[in-house]
Amino acid sequence: xxxxxxxxxxxxxxxxxxxxxxxxxxxxxxxxxxxxxxxxxxxxxxxxxxxxxxxxxxxxxxxxxxxxxxxxxxxxxxxxxxxxxxxxxxxxxxxxxxxxxxxxxxxxxxxxxxxxxxxxxxxxxxxxxxxxxxxxxxxxxxxxxxxxxxxxxxxxxxxxxxxxxxxxxxxxxxxxxxxxxxxxxxxxxxxxxxxxxxxxxxxxxxxxxxxxxxxxxxxxxxxx
Length: 224
Fold this sequence. Notes:
The protein is α/β, with parallel strands linked by helices.
């Protein structure tokens, strides 16, 4: 490398993340809690050019432990704290911060990551955006059990609809009541991996479950 040359920070991922495809994407992350914050930070490091963050909540002290917010972030809107850190990772990143619940009237990116903690909320968001995004990723977590779902125009949409069972049938407990930063980081990594598969023109794994305690990683055999 010449002394005056500018290092390419993307060179080590070049064979895994096609830069030309990535630059065509605008990404929306709905919910920047345990999983969503990690997704946003990984996407910023990956090099997405546009990132939209949507969350109505503010940072609490427990979020420092389970969601990797900073102690100085307590009391700040989550989208603001996350957006600031994303731009520290990539100064050229265009960040839009929506300090509100997701609403059908909101514009979205070409890729959407749904990182909320309610089945009914997921279902409402899905009904609104399923035909408006090219890639959809959904991260779910309870304790040390992670489930990641993905859908594109060609794969996964019919199957995803079958996972939106009534809220009353959901396993007891919210992801926010039993969570760790390491499980959230793994869930985010699996989501971002499915996104990079989509960027490479590969079929995403539309339904993956990772049970850390049991040591089980299962990719569902889904044909749709």
